[in-house]
């Protein structure tokens, strides 16, 4: 997505901090297709705020 700046989204570190899981765990969930990340033009991953709820759901299983 050209020109995407991540406004209103969470970087992986922010998501990890907010959910008390590691960045590696988030990477794993993303690779499994459990989480979706958007990439910025500088290749940063950004996650929707709904990812917080999704991680909590995954962690409670």
UniProtKB/TrEMBL annotation:
Per the record, a Pfam family? MerR
UniProt KW Ion transport keyword: no
Domain of life of the source: Bacteria
This protein's UniProt keywords? DNA-binding
Matching InterPro entries: DNA-bd_dom_put_sf, MerR-type_HTH_dom, MerR_fam
MF GO annotations? DNA binding; DNA-binding transcription factor activity
What sequence ranges are listed for the domain HTH merR-type? Answer: 9-61
Give the protein name, as stated in the record. HTH merR-type domain-containing protein
Originating organism: Bacillus swezeyi
